[in-house]
């Protein structure tokens, strides 16, 4: 082979290698940083509630931090089914997030058929916060502590009533769990709204009520309702002088509600890690922490693994409560 032919061959090989390197590098150089366009957050309830307000505050902070809009969309509907359908549309790229909560672990057990599996279909990102139920009696009533209520329930089986909102709600199922935990005979009375529950308490139609803090706050401050216990494992920041139900006499009772952000299963781990890191920083923001506490929520992030473990553990827990209470599926 002539020297000229050898040079042409070498040059061709060099050109081929250069082009190959450029082609191989193209996917890396073209890879976009997440997020590079707006992100949706799907909520399984209507606007205006505690979850909606806090999620919108967090979304605004995420928008500032990550440089893209985080847009909250409300998809109310029984069992979170409408929201799940919207959240599970492909692709699994982290641009559609959804809000799931401890109520999700309950609701999937309340329907004969649910067209999604919260464990298999979703990937956990981070918790948003934790919130406890508060058990209250009428301030001017005879029961000043959980011990008083337990004593009366034992002396008058079947005669005392505990008020909650709708059958199958977090409040309702927590009271059913309390009933079985204490082994007491009292009636769990469901009402349409928190307002109806509190009116019933004031009329002595029910002697104890279980509700989240926001609807109770003004009545507690006005000395209309007496808080006798909170449902979690530790005392709340917003009612530090109120004992937990464990401290008050229900030793095996522990119900801590939670909410969190999830995305579609199959979302790249790097995207989940980016979101997780950003959410943890946002939830530690003093403005977010203060606002959340006003609604009885202790804002806090978590690892994806911890959030998933909570969801996995609570589905069978509430399935058993629903079965024990003989609550019919929808």
Explain the overall architecture.
With 330 residues, this protein is of the alpha/beta class. The protein folds into two domains: 39-130 and 256-324, D-Maltodextrin-Binding Protein, domain 2, CATH 3.40.190.150; 132-248, Periplasmic binding protein-like II (D-Maltodextrin-Binding Protein, domain 2, 3-Layer(aba) Sandwich). The protein is 45% helix and 19% strand. It contains twelve helices and ten strands. It has helices at residues 3-30, 50-66, 81-87, 102-107, 146-155, 170-182, 194-202, 213-221, 245-248, 269-283, 286-294, 304-324, and strands at residues 39-43, 70-74, 96-101, 122-138, 161-164, 187-190, 208-212, 225-230, 256-264, 298-299. Strands 1, 2, 3, 4, 5, 6, 7, 8, 9 and 10 form a ten-stranded mixed β-sheet that branches. Mean pLDDT is 91; it is low at 3-30.
Helix content: 40-55%
Number of domains: 2
What global shape is seen?
globular
Instruction: Return Rg in Å.
Output: 26 Å
Average pLDDT level:
91
Instruction: Look at the structure and name the CATH superfamily of the largest domain.
Output: Bordetella uptake gene, domain 1
Euclidean distance between termini CA atoms = 84 Å
Q: Predict the CATH topology of the largest domain.
A: D-Maltodextrin-Binding Protein, domain 2
What share of residues are in beta strands? 15-25%
Total helical segments: 12
Q: Which CATH top level class of the largest domain fits?
A: Alpha Beta
Series of H and E elements? HEHEHEHEHEHEHEHEHEHHEH
Major β-sheet, in short?
Answer: 10 strands, mixed
| Low-pLDDT segments, ≥5 res | 3-30
Extended strand count: 10
| Structural category | alpha/beta
Quickly give the CATH architecture of the largest domain.
3-Layer(aba) Sandwich
């Amino acid at each position: 082979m002539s020297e000229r032919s050898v040079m042409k061959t070498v040059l061709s090989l060099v050109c081929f290698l250069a082009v190959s390197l450029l082609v191989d590098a193209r996917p890396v150089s073209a890879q976009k940083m997440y997020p590079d366009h707006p992100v949706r957050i799907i909520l399984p309830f209507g606007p205006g509630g505690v979850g909606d307000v806090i999620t919108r505050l967090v979304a605004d902070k995420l928008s500032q931090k990550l440089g893209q809009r985080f847009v909250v969309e409300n998809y109310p509907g029984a069992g979170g089914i409408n929201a799940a359908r919207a959240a599970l549309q492909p692709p699994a790229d982290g641009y559609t997030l959804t809000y799931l909560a401890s109520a999700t672990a309950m609701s999937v057990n309340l329907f004969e058929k649910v067209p999604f599996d919260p464990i298999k279909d979703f990937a956990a990102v981070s918790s948003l916060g934790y919130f406890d139920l508060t058990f209250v009696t009428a301030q001017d009533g005879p029961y000043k502590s959980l011990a008083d209520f337990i004593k009366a329930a034992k002396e008058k089986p079947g005669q005392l009533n505990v008020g909650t909102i709708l059958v199958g709600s977090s409040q309702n199922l927590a009271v059913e769990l309390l009933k079985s935990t204490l082994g007491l005979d009292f009636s769990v009375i469901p009402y349409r709204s928190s307002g109806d529950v509190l009116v019933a308490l004031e009329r002595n139609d029910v002697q104890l009520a279980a509700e989240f803090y926001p609807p109770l706050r003004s009545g507690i401050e006005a000395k209309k309702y007496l808080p006798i216990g909170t449902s979690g494992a530790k005392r709340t920041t917003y009612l530090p002088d109120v004992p937990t139900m464990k401290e008050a006499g229900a030793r095996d009772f522990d119900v801590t509600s939670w909410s969190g952000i999830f995305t579609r299963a199959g979302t790249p781990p790097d995207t989940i890690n980016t979101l997780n890191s950003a959410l943890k920083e946002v939830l530690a923001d003093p403005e977010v922490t203060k606002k959340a506490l006003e609604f009885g929520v202790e804002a806090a992030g978590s690892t994806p693994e911890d959030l998933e473990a909570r969801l996995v553990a609570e589905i069978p827990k509430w399935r058993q409560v629903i079965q024990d209470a003989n609550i019919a599926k929808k």
